[in-house]
Structures are given as C-alpha cells and as structure tokens.
Amino acid sequence: MKILKFGGTSVGSAKSIQCILNILQKRYYSGEKFIVVSSAMSGVTNLLTEMAFAASERKDFKSGLTEIENKHFSVAKELLEIKNQNPVLTQIKLYMNELEELLQGVNSLKELSLQSKDLILSYGEKCSTYLLSQISKQYFPESTYVDSSSLIKTNNQFGNAKVNVEKTEYLIKNYYKLHSDKIFFITGFIASNEENRITTLGRGGSDYTAAIFGAALEAEQIELWSDVDGMLTTDPKIVKKAFSLSELSYTEAMELSYFGAKVIYPPAMIPAFRKNIPILLLNTFNPDFKGTLIHKENIEKNPFPIKGISSINEISLVNVTGSGMIGEVGFSGRLFSLLAREQINVILITQSSSEHSITFAIEPNDIERAKNLITREFEMELQTHKINIPSIEENLCIIAIVGENMKQTPGISGKLFHVLGRNGINVHAIAQGSSEYNISVIIKKKNLAKALNTVHDTFFIELTKTLHVFVLGTGNIGATLFQQIQNQSNFLKENNDIEVKIVGISNSRKMLIQENGIDLIEWKAALNEGNQANLENFIQQMKIMNLSNCVFIDNTASPDPKKFYKSIFESNISIVTCNKIANSSSYKEYKILKDTARKRGVDFFYETNVGAGLPIIKTLKDLMNSGDRILKIEAILSGTISYIFNNFKGDVSFYEVVKKAQELGFTEPDPRDDLSGKDFMRKMMILARDAGYTTEEHEVLLENILSENCINANSVDDFYNELQKSESYFTEIKLKAEKEKKAIRYIGKLEKGKVSINLELVDASHPFYNLSGSDNIISFTTERYKYNPLVIKGPGAGAEVTAAGVFADLINVGTE
Ligand code: ADP
Ligand code: ASP
Ligand code: MG
C-alpha cells in the first residue's frame, strides 16, 4: 500500500484535480492499493490565517469567506455530475457556516487564541479533502472521506502540535482494519488533543500526516505530489538553473527542508526514517518525472561537493552580548529554555568562542516578543550591566549549503565565503552543524537571489557559469565584440562552461536592458527600439539588478564613463575597458580605481589600453607579481605612426604618406590626434604606472613630430597645407636615415621612472628596425631579462584585435 499526498497547488483548481484523477485512475486500474492525503486548496490556509486575525481586530473577514466558498463551489460544479452536486454544495455550505460562526466569535471577543486559530485553519483541509473524496467517488465508489483529527492525537501545543505516536498508530491501525475495503481521502495538517480539540501540525504539515499514516500502516512508499520536479538543487523559483535530484538521504532532506526547501516538511522525515519507508517526491503536473527518492543512504555517487542549497527568505537576528556572560554556567540554557517555553522557534544559533556574545535567528514576527521576554527574564543582569540590551538586525535571510559529501571534502566553506565576498555579499553570521551536513550563512535579504545564483554556479561546477554583462559603446569595437561573442558562445559553453549574457547595451543615443539576455543577432534592431540613452540611469539599473558575476564593459573613447567606475566597483561589479581615459588621467584617479577594485575583490581589466589585443599589460603584471623589477621599457605603440614612417621612403613626401594613411583609415579623422603623440603618451603613462611609478602627464618628455604651425592649424585642410610647408624638415630626416642605413622610429621609453617619447633613427641591429606595417612592439628590460629583453610584437590596432582583447579580458573575469 502506498500513501499519496497531494499539496495545495495539486488541489488548487478543477484543472489540477483532473491531473490527480488521472494519476489515481492509473493506480486504481492496475490494482494498486493507496490512501490519499490532501492539503487545503492553495492559498486557503494563508487566507484563513488573515481572516482570523482580521476578525480579532474587528476588520472584514466576510469577503474571505465568499472567496473560499467560491473556490470550492466552482470546482464542485465543474467536476461533479449535476445529480451529485447538491449534497456536496450543502456540506461545504455547512462548513462555511460553522467557520463564519467561529470568526464571529473571535470578532466578538476581539481575541484569537492559538486554539481557535487551529480550529479555523482546519476548515481548509476539511473542505478540500471532502470535495476531492466526493469527486473521486464518481470514479471509485470505495472513496471515503476521513477527518484525520479523530485519528492523530497530539499534545496541547496548538499551531505546532507534537504527535503521540503510540496512541495515533493504534487508532490508525484499528480504523484501517475496520475499513480496509475503502479508499481513504484523509485531511492533512489537522489532529486533536486529549480533549478532542483540534490542533495542527505546523505549516506544511500535510506531508507529516502522510508520513504518520505511512508509518502506522507500514506503507511500501510515501509519495508527496507537488508542483515541482521533486527536490531540486535549490528553489527553482529563484535559480533558473536548479535541477532535480534523483535521491537524497533522510538527513540531507531534513537539512534542506529545515532551511527552507519547503517541498517537504522536515518532521515528515521522522516517521518515515523510523520505519525505513522511502519517500518519493513527485510532480502532479509532470507525471513522467521519475521522482526524487528520499531513503536511508544514497546509492549513486554524487559528482558534486554539495547536494543542494536552501534558503529562508526572511529572518531577524538577535545579539545578546555582555561581559557577564563569560563563564556563566547555564546562561544560554536559561535563554533558550525561555524561548522554547514561549514557542519562539530558534532557527539558528552561533556563539563566539569567548562566550562574550550569543547570536540567534528567529522569525521577524517573534522579534518584539523575544526582546520583551529577554529583558524581563534578565532584568537583574541588565541592571547590573552584566549584559546589554539585545540588539536586533532585520531584513536578513539564511542560505544553507547541504550535503553528506561535505564531510569528506575540505575547502567547501572557503569556497562559499570567497564567492560571496567577490560578489559583495556581506556575511552577518555563520553556523555549521556539528554533523558537517550543512553550513548556513546569514546575509541581507536583498542579496538572496544573487547569492543563491552565484553559490549555485560555484558548487555545481559542471554547470555553466553565467557572466552578466552591460556594454557601453556600439561602435566598431562594440559591434565586433558582439559578433565574436555570438560566434563563440557554443564553444565557451562546451569547453569553458561559461555563458556570456549581454544584459544591457547602451550607446550615446539608445539603451536597452533585458535580464534574460539580449539576442546578439538582433541587437541593433532591439537597441533602436530601446529607451533614450542616459548613462547614469543605465549604470543605476545595472547596480539595482544586483546580478551575479556582473561585468561592465566600456567600449567608448568618451571621458564620461570613468566618473562612474569607482561606484561600479563599489557595487562589486568588474570592469573591462579599452577606454584609456580613466587610467591616464591623474595618478590619484588611477590609484583610487585600482585600490577600490582590489578591496572589493573585483577585476579591472584594460589589456586593450595598450597595443590592442597584444598581451602587454598582462605580461607586465605577471613580471611585477612574480617579483621582477622593470629596468627599462622601450616601445612603439602607435600603429599609425609606425605605418607612416614605414612607408616614408624613396620619392614620396611625408604629406603624401599621411594623406594615404588617412585614406586607408589608419588615422583618426584628424591625423594630428595620432601625430601629436598624445595617444602614445597615454599608453606609456599607463605602462609606467603599472610598473610602479606615479607618472603624471606633465612629467612626460614628448618630442613633437609636427611643427607648431601644423599643430595650431584651424582645420584638417589647413593642417595639410602646413604639413606641405614643413616637408623639408621631414625630407632631411629621411635622407639622413637613408644615408646612415637607419629606420625612423617614434619610440617611447621608460627609464629610471622617466617617460619620454622621441623620434629616433635606429640601425639594423636594433630590435625595432624590422617593424612592418602598423605593428606595435615593446621590449621589457628587467632584472631577469637584463641582457636579452622580453619582446612582444604584433598588430596593435584594429577593431578585430581590440574586440578580441576585450573579449579575452571578459572571459578572464573571476578566474584569477
Ligand atoms: P505543496 O503545496 O505541494 O505542499 P509547497 O508549496 O509546500 O507545495 O512546496 C513546493 C514548493 O517548494 C515549490 O513550488 C518550490 O517553489 C519550493 N521549493 C523551495 N526550495 C525547493 C527545492 N530545493 N526543491 C524544490 N522545491 C523547492
Ligand atoms: N494547508 C497547510 C499549509 O498551508 C498544510 C499543508 O499545505 O501542508 O500549511
Ligand atoms: Mg507543502
């Protein structure tokens, strides 16, 4: 015989009850014996609770009554044949009348005892189970409605009553013996005390009812039918990547459900465990799902270090501190017996080893009561300042990682705290059960979704890690980056377990934010339909969304975004950028950004600030981190100027080469932006700063290639005119170079902390002599690379290589 318990959502509507009937018919016609336990229709227990409180405050409860009546009537009318409807509607009406009378009583007395509340709540289960039994009777005539309150006996702890197991099992067995030819439809959740007053078994208690019947009748299996595919790795309503577990031990299920996985009520495990009866969690709406089996020991090997993550969405912390607690025998005993006596459920306790403080978590509803009780009980200690007035922290939640594997695997808690820290989630308190089956942390409620998602990504590593990305700038580099991400997404998922989700895109005209990710094939059209761009607002939304593994990419050349960098880091968001303005403004600004990123444990990657995709910044960082010392850096970091001097040969004039370079798109619209050397200077400053110097712009010795007149010309055309006039200057250099068999190079140097950029003639023995096209080259002379410098050479400009550099930085976020 099996017990089949259907939860609130399974009996919530005619459509869902139809699903139950299909399940039952299959069992019935295959000759299986079963007993059904049913919860109240979804939402009804909550509604009854609200109505009871409303009545006690003389507020309206009648609309609730109508709502409950309608809910049941509409199911009855849809699923009962007309000839069967009348008696059922009458019975429900009778229940409603009784309920109204009770609420009226509460209303008159202006008082709601736990006892009356239980009686009121019991109507939820009575109505739904009676209705389900009568609908089922049309298919299985043996169907019989059973009010469990006459069979489950408890103590007087209304609201969360404790079962008298012996008596209950005796009553159930006897009842079953007498009616073994029937199919029982049993009310979940409700029971009664010695005086036959109704009690309830705690919220979610129908699971417990099923287990109590299962144990008493030594059922072959207890099936709990709900609206999800069994127990998932975490709450599927918060983490989309949560997946179903095929099995759990009783202990694991107990730990997960204790900390919020409400798909099963923790006490339900006890009778099942006692009689070694497996519990199977099933989905009423997906009958093909095989179920999560909860039994004594796991059979399969779990490939992950933990089994699941659960959460309690809202708790408050109470801190009791004071020197008087040190060495005081029995202090915590007194404190916790007081709370237990007054039925305040303590969810979690931590005590510092110095015994100077005790912190415990309780439900927010209990806060006022707890505070008052403690101040009364410890009045003496408070007056003599042995302890302080309890302090309260609110708007918190708990997340707990659970699993039997944790015991054998070191480093789990380190991993948990690391990932929370990286995402800017502060841990208020920690508790680890001595069983080592769970580690619980208390965090701010607003961080719950982010924490669950990141922790899930971290521990179920075979799952893809998702980077949530906000991109500023859709010019050449931005557009190329989207294309590259799009082309590479499958590869990244399969080989690196990384999913890049572009959540926000903005340029100077439009902005678009889509939490589920923007389709990178259609991004242009979608962005056009987006809102008017507003940088501040874009960044604000990014912060508010508080997504896990969040990265901001600045693909612009604008001076505006850098204003927000610091606050972005402070929101624990990493930045990847090819925009060099931030790093090459004042040294102070550079330092603040670096320090903030480091303190927040987020990344600030800007490889493309120097030499596009060439690994220059990274190499310098590796040299520095590994303890090497930079003696000298020499570099050609302007692709445009390289191109110009590489082609300034033979008969062509300097003017012609510049003009050609512009036509080929190798220069900025105004070629002076390149030829002024300013861009080059910025790159050299960034290198110098990364090499440990405090270089400022005014300290750089920059030799101008252009004459004053060229620089000051009013327009690009005027500039070209002036350039033609200074031709003799360039011809002279060219002739000199040709005569000496040298090449003209514009070289940046960092030596003894000084940055200079000069036009130089280098001979064939110089490593920079053979530089073709628009290549960049850099040589690092260091303590280790003293006689043979470390040289990096390659294409240092262009949308493809720059976007690829940004992309590489993005993928590296969070890996170092
Ligand atoms: P029922 O009414 O069937 O008893 P409950 O609402 O009590 O159902 O429990 C099912 C709900 O538990 C799911 O809808 C889901 O949102 C929630 N839940 C929380 N954590 C988990 C988890 N780890 N696995 C499955 N469900 C979970
Ligand atoms: N109806 C009760 C509740 O909502 C019991 C249950 O659903 O298990 O808590
Ligand atoms: Mg439930």
Automatic annotation (TrEMBL):
Per the UniProt record, the source organism is: Apibacter adventoris
Q: Which residues form a coiled coil?
A: none
> Self-association or partners: how does it assemble?
Homotetramer.
Superkingdom is Bacteria
- Please report the name of this protein according to its UniProt entry: Bifunctional aspartate kinase/homoserine dehydrogenase I
Residue ranges of domain ACT in the record = 320-392, 401-479
- Reactions catalysed, as given in the entry: L-aspartate + ATP = 4-phospho-L-aspartate + ADP; L-homoserine + NAD(+) = L-aspartate 4-semialdehyde + NADH + H(+); L-homoserine + NADP(+) = L-aspartate 4-semialdehyde + NADPH + H(+)
Describe which pathway this protein belongs to, using the record's wording.
Answer: Amino-acid biosynthesis; L-methionine biosynthesis via de novo pathway; L-homoserine from L-aspartate: step 1/3; Amino-acid biosynthesis; L-lysine biosynthesis via DAP pathway; (S)-tetrahydrodipicolinate from L-aspartate: step 1/4; Amino-acid biosynthesis; L-methionine biosynthesis via de novo pathway; L-homoserine from L-aspartate: step 3/3; Amino-acid biosynthesis; L-threonine biosynthesis; L-threonine from L-aspartate: step 3/5
Q: Does the keyword Nucleus apply?
A: no
Cofactor(s) in the UniProt record: a metal cation
Q: Which Pfam families match?
A: AA_kinase, ACT_9, Homoserine_dh, NAD_binding_3
